[in-house]
Amino acid sequence: MNETTVTVVGNVATTPVYRELPSGPVARFRLAVTARHFDAVKNTWNDGHTNFFTVWARRTLGANVQASLAVDEPVIVQGRLKVRDEERGGQHWTSADIDAQTIGHDLSRGTAAFRRVLKGDGSLTQAASAREQPESEPVG
């Protein structure tokens, strides 16, 4: 009930990995989020520290992530933040995961074409399929 929900804007850092599990489809990818600040003296934007999150997308969202996202694309991710501390090979690791509820392209940095999928089978609707077919030009 008291989970930490976050909205993060960044770039897809790794190719989404998609798997069919007994519990349903899941996709994961790394999200890079770099803070930027404006230096008024130099009149330039400067990059700050980059944070990396592992984003987990389950069920239909996972299938859509696999079909829609590629490395370096700007995205907005909203979901539950989970920070994990663990020991691996004698070293201490801390990781931040986001269990995504929604993911979309950041349209302030580019354009996207939405394609609706039918519930259950993941195939495109007829309207979306028709949009993807190039219209033939009249000959003559």
Automatic annotation (TrEMBL):
Which PROSITE patterns has this protein been placed in? SSB
Which CDD domains does the record cross-reference, listed alphabetically? Answer: SSB_OBF
Key word DNA-binding present: yes
Recorded GO MF terms:
DNA binding
Keyword set, alphabetical order: DNA-binding
Q: Which InterPro entries match?
A: NA-bd_OB-fold, Primosome_PriB/ssb, ssDNA-bd
Q: Which SUPFAM superfamilies match?
A: Nucleic acid-binding proteins (SSF50249)
Tell me where on the tree of life, at the top rank, the source sits.
Bacteria
Q: What is this protein called?
A: Single-stranded DNA-binding protein
Keyword set includes S-adenosyl-L-methionine: no
Kindly list any coiled-coil regions of this protein.
none
Species this protein is from:
Streptomyces alfalfae
Pfam families documented for this protein: SSB
